[in-house]
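REQUEST FORM: STRUCTURE PREDICTION
Request ID: SP-0412
Submitted by: Lab K.M.
Chain count: 1
Length (residues): 228
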Amino acid sequence: MSDKFIYTARGIKKAYPLPGGELFWALKGVDVDIPQGGLTILKGRSGSGKTTLMNILGALDDATEGQVIFDGVNISQMPEKERNLLRRRSIGFVFQSVALIPIMTAQENVEYALRLSGYSGNLKDRALRCLDMVGLKKRAGHMPQELSGGEQQRVAIARAIAHRPKIILADEPTGELDTSTALKVVRIFRELNEKENVTILMTTHDRGFMDIGDRAYELEDGEIKNEY
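STATUS: Completed
RESULT:
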């Protein structure tokens, strides 16, 4: 892990309108720094604002106030066309719901993500390489319904890293997994840090994962309560 921050976010606020004209502030002025090449944990209960923050960092949503610098570029006011390109080329997403395409094999799911990103290399070779990194090369020809929940999540991780993003944003990737399987997923993230130099930001509601990151933030009611 380097001393450089791939993300620097300052004063991030997000408001949603309520009936009657009032505003609900999901984020109330959040500052975060995400070290490049490391694993950062963002912990919080449901409704704490962690997914809202993740969506803003991932250029999926706009902040009401504040500034997000990604790899030296201010993405806060970036045009939508450029934001789409940024997401496709530089960011990988892993969600709690894996959303694999059910009529495609594990390998085909990864290859499809490569096509969407505009990857110009050998699709099959890269897909199999990524499945191998998550321990599923031998399951490349299996359909999603033939895989366990943990295996499906590992395919989702392979899909997310396939286009060699600068960061993976993983929103509750272990939320539906048992403890043993969840730890396997986290170990894969750690290996990706070390072998691929991929930065990972992972949200969780499980305090047990707070100690595994290089940096951890605890979010409560839209504010950072603790930093580790």
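NOTES: DSSP finds six helices and ten strands in the chain.
Reviewed by: T.R.
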